[in-house]
Amino acid sequence: MFYRLRKNFALFLLVFFLFTALIPLPLWGVELPLQAEAAILVDGHSGRILYEKEPHKKLYPASMTKLMTLVLAMEALEAGEIKRDDVIIVSEHAASYYGSHIFLAPEEKLTLYELLLGIALASGNDASVAVAEYIAGTHEAFVELMNQKAKELGMKNTHFINCNGLHDPEHYSTTYDFSLLAKYALRFPDLLKMCSLKHYRIRTETKRPFQYDNKNKLLWFYPGTDGFKTGWTEAAKYCFVSTCQRDGFRLIAVVMGVPVPRGHFEETKVLFNYGFSQFSFQEFYAEDKVIGEVKVGKGKVNKIAVVPEEKVGITLPRGEGANLTTEMELKPLINAPLKKGEVVGYISIVKNGEILSRTNLIVKEDVPKGSVWQMMKKIFREVTL
User: How many Å apart are CA 78 and CA 20, to the nearest integer?
Assistant: First the structure.
């Protein structure tokens, strides 16, 4: 009896260790030398969490807040509601904001692009309010949009009081919530371009020239870094929401409540070093790569090209990328009219018969409905073949 129990226990231990060997380390509490009150590392492609420390702890985000301000501006630009060359007249209210600022004067005129760079690089509190007022009419109305967007993105532990991150006890968020915002921000290539600039000069033809110097110092000494925003207040300590890409593998890191100067940079490096050393990204198809066709009924054309909705790839612990294959499934026929982006199937990444991820396949362009004459010609061709 004792021998049987010991044998069963040994078998249980063997199964347990084999099972845990297949689980990524972060799920089992890998320890990293971080002083941050909260931290998170996320796969920029899938949103999968690769490391976390108190990810849902409510803390003050300081100027990381400005990432939401920039995102809403990008949305408005994309929708055609505003243009980057729009000239904005700075209000007295916007010009009154100090702390981190770009020395705006009441009635000063700058383009929207210049003000957005003043937010992205110099972290201007005054520039943030000027942009907020231009987009929403008032600062207060813009903050409502910020909280609405946070809700849409699933930022359940976030509440904004202002657009720039100046301290308020009711202005808070979490590293997890900001990782959601950062992943959404990756939709806007122009935002990454702005955030990756190291310097930019304004008022070059006046007596008040000013140079923005990017506060994200990882741009200088951590290759692949191209976003997003730093933050600091006495209450928040040092914060940083950032992203870095190497060899097509993108990571998002967020640290909050780091107690020492430059510590938010050093601890972000620890997170990135861990991510790039322990995980790798395997890409199969770019998001604009034509990988198939679907038959079209009642349309001007008989078939239409199909592309992935996003890049087809997967992030796995290093050494676990062998034996990966893809399997595609398309609808046999779909009737026109079709809109560009309509889902007509999916492609799966498979390992040893198990589906690891699935990506929608979409039509590459619009397909109008065919005329009666076109339908008759198609029927005639099919009958005579």
Answer: 45
Catalytic residue at 66? yes
Q: Which of 100, 123, 173, 179 is catalytic?
A: 123
Domains and CATH numbers, the chain: 30-280 (3.40.710.10), 286-384 (2.60.410.10)
- Cβ atoms of 51 and 271 closer than 8 Å: yes
Query: Angle between the 175-185 and 66-78 helix axes, to the nearest 10 degrees?
Result: 30
Asked if residue 285 lies in contact with residue 325, where contact means CB atoms within 8 angstroms, the answer is no
Residue 63 annotated as catalytic: yes
H runs (alpha helix) in the chain: 2-21, 66-78, 92-95, 112-120, 125-136, 139-152, 175-185, 189-195, 218-221, 263-278, 372-384
Predicted pLDDT at 273: 98
Q: Which residue among 53, 63, 173, 183 is the active-site one?
A: 63
Catalytic residue chosen out of the listed positions 53, 66, 183, 229: 66
Rounded-to-10 torsion of CA 313, 193, 77, 82: 180
123 has catalytic annotation: yes
> What is the tens place of the pLDDT at every residue in 65-106?
999 999 999 999 999 999 999 999 999 999 999 899 999 999
Confidence of residue 206 (pLDDT cuts 50, 70, 90): confident
> pLDDT tens for residues 25-56?
444 458 899 999 999 999 999 999 999 999 99
